[in-house]
Amino acid sequence: MGLRRYYSAVRLATVASLLSLAAVAGCTQNSSPGSSGPLMVAGFENATGNEAFRFWDPWIADMLIRDLWQAESPVVWPLARTLRVRAGAGDPGKDAVLGASREAGAGVVLFGRVSREGEGFLLTAELISTTGEEPLGILSESALNAQEVPAAVDRLRDAVWGALGVKGPAEPVTITSLTTSNLNAYGEFVAGEVLYYQQRYLAAGEKFRVAAEQDLDFAQAHYRKATARLRYFVGDDLEARSFITLAWAKREHVPTRDRLAIEGFRALIFRELDKAQAVYLELRSRYPGDKEQAYYAGLAHSHGEQMEEAEAAFSTAVAIDPRFVPGLTALANTTFLAGKLERARAVAAQGLEVNPVEPGLLDVSVNVDLFLGRLDDVERLLQRGLASRSTPALRLAAGNLLLLRGDVQAAKKQFLDLRSPFSLATSEIYQGRINAGLSRLSDSSQLQIAAGNFNTAVVALWFTGLILHENGDPALAFEQLNKAINLAPDFPDTIAALGVQAARGGDTSRASQVLAGLRQWGAKVDESLWRRQALFLEGELAAAQEDTDQAVVLLTQARDLAGVRLLGGGLISDLPLLTDALARAHLAGGDLDAAEALFREITEMAADRLYWPWIWLGAHVHLAELAVREGREEEAGRWAAVVRQYWGEKRDEKQPMVDEALARLDRILPVR
Fold it and tell me: Both 172 and 259 in a single domain?
């Protein structure tokens, strides 16, 4: 049957249907005669007595919301302003719904109903202006039987668009575009879609699972299962891979948009990044208002270490929907790793307004505050996060907080519980047990190599080499760094470390050879990481050749490129390493004020103490010496007291790093 428009009174849908869903969507500014502002989808009453139709209410609401987001020039109404009616509160009444809609800024309220009509079904949609409270029109569609209902819903949706004067997307998502004829599968899928757009991904995934079990050929259900799984269990690619493989196998009859989405997500999950980026580029050009595809494009760039492109894609997703928590989490992480700490903190705060206990956002906020030394804020965030969901990342942060506040024993216990070798090594070094810390790192690297986790092993070897050199064993340091380079020849930090240690040991010939190799590798990629490591080594080489002015210039450039990276299971910044090198260059050149300012900066890098304790404590030694030179003995005593607090206890084993630091302090400030 064709479209029928009624202007006579008809039975309105009971507002009790709001108890299942009340959602706000947006449309163009002058969306219908005599109204402006977004459309409020109040709900569709199931008056058929048939439980199979319980899903039409949320489905039509969700479909309108999603298509309005893709409409040309939409005024999108954030889901945060959704009219919510508590279940069990009773029928609020039509007037209450209209009043709440008006207050929320809606221009039109849509009440709908699906009922029996002989052997078939009748779907009606009444549009009411919130300004005049008069019907703008009643639209209806009929279906001869249950199998024709999906097509009737699609026609009704098009009729609503026509009445509102809204031009929807070129290829809207419709009920009939779904690859199932199973009404129960429809119902579970639609319920999952509503939960998905409410960002309740765990519950949504369960609905999609049931839908897929009802119809094993239901490609979109398998696809949504995969995306929901990845959203809730971040990084859980194994399950997502199995789900997207099923969707890929059933993709033949899905519309272009869904097929591209499945293809792009499959490439992303299987790390076929060039293909994923190409598919998401096409999706974003076809559907520029789709936050999901912008988000996945960002993930594809992020996995490919194209961080600027990733940040731009995540920013687009968040601009489309400022309350899109996965996009906000990814954007906060990306800006944090780029060293844009205040920006990351602001984005995370925006996301925490939507979900105050989102683990990913709490992780970013905690890490940023650790790096900025805002320990009270860290404690507040940890209390909130650990009370709701005690993730390993938050528990590790709790241990780091204990370490930064000087409770090394309590921190060490936390790290032991978590089996975190890097943090355990740090706690050993803070206690002056350098060899014990090196042993922890050595055990970790061997275990990681055996497990095939070469990236984590390389970081452990890199740190081992750095600490061994500072601890007076350059030969063993060289051996460990070479082992790291053999495992990962494209990791510039270990290559630069070899050259820096050669330069500091006076072997400028070897340092020059390493620099040439570093530049040769760096020519293959255009990344700030390679550039800053080459500048770092070149600066150290200039310092070894007593060209301190050139050393300062080069090391300043390297330091300006410093960033934050996820290495070996932890977020590590090489800023302390580069700041220490620059401070030493200023010291060698006689610019004591500049050197002192930089050493002070190192002592204020709260979170960096977690990974560079020997540099942090070494800065205290330098500051004590500078203070004595300037006659500020009381201040020098305060700097020395910190070092002696951590390293002053007598040790049975010989530890040159600790012994030398304490000897330098004893020369200028003898212990009385």
Answer: no
Other beta carbons within 10 Å of 409: 9
Contact by Cβ (8 Å): 191, 207: yes
Give the rounded distance of the alpha carbon of 175 from its chain centre: 32
Q: CATH code at 249?
A: 1.25.40.10
> What HEC string does 552-569 produce?
HHHHHHHHHCCCEEEECC
CB 54 within 8 A of CB 25: no
Asked whether 110 and 61 are in contact (CB, 8 A), the reply is no
Radius of gyration of the chain (CA): 31
CA distance 27 to 36: 9
| Phi, psi angle pair for 200, to nearest 5° | -105, 75
**Contact assessment for residue 401 and residue 610, using Cβ atoms and an 8 Å cutoff:** no
Q: Which candidate, 475, 464, 434, places its Cα nearest to that of 659?
A: 434
Cβ proximity of 211 and 222 under 8 Å:
no
Q: What is the pLDDT of residue 178?
A: 64
User: What band does 53 get if pLDDT is binned at 50, 70 and 90?
Assistant: very low
Q: Hunting for tokens 């002070």 — which residue is that?
A: 600
Partners of 129 in beta bridges: 108
Predicted confidence (pLDDT) per residue in 284-316, tens digit: 988 888 888 999 999 999 888 788 899 999 999
Residue type (1 letter), 447: L
- The number of distinct structural domains making up the chain is 2
Of 12, 93, 71, the residue nearest 47 (C-alpha)? 12
pTM: 0.65
84 lies in some domain: yes
Pairwise pLDDT comparison (248 vs 568), residue with the higher score: 248
User: What does the pLDDT look like over 111-161, one tens digit per residue?
Assistant: 666 677 777 878 777 777 777 656 677 888 888 876 777 677 778 777 777
Q: Are residues 149 and 42 in the same domain?
A: yes
**In whole angstroms, what is the distance from residue 529 CA to residue 558 CA?**
9
SS3 4: strand
